[in-house]
Amino acid sequence: MTHYTFISRARNEGHIDIVPDQGDLTSYSIDRRTGWFSDKSTARIQKHVEGRTYEVGEASVRSDRVTCNGRSIRLHGKMFSSSETFVAPNNQKYKWSMDGAHGAHLRADKESTDTNIASYTAEHGPFKKPDELTVYGEGEMMMDEVVATAVYMARKVALKKKRRTSVAGAVIEFLGDGLGG
């Protein structure tokens, strides 16, 4: 099992480091645009190994596509579903299932298995515990794909969380206008 923490120096900064708990392992970083209308901007992913930096690829919520090590991965979701499936280089189908605005879990897309391959947990708690990614057994053999698709899912979860906040604010404003004014 490998556990990563997403670290950002500033809340709305476009650079995020994905750092393993064990310092001698591979780390990753994400760079993306921030500011107005950047919710669906493409995130560029890099891998850092023994002092060298390698391009892993990109994750785009706008096009539902992840590029990983030169390979284009299309994430497919069904209408009104919170799951996204993709085919890995080993030709096996995998499915990320969103857990509301709390995170997502990656499993092999088979009815017969319920084994977690990875779990992404979004920022949470009163002290804003940072995003985390835990990769289990089978996922460690395709770490770049797991990280790249997890970045994509992290963006989807963040968008869902933002929508929930916007809707809750609108409802409160509407009720406030109706009750107080």
Automatic annotation (TrEMBL):
<dbReference type="InterPro" id="IPR046528">
    <property type="entry name" value="DUF6593"/>
</dbReference>
<feature type="domain" description="DUF6593">
    <location>
        <begin position="22"/>
        <end position="156"/>
    </location>
</feature>
<dbReference type="Pfam" id="PF20236">
    <property type="entry name" value="DUF6593"/>
</dbReference>
<protein>
    <recommendedName>
        <fullName>DUF6593 domain-containing protein</fullName>
    </recommendedName>
</protein>
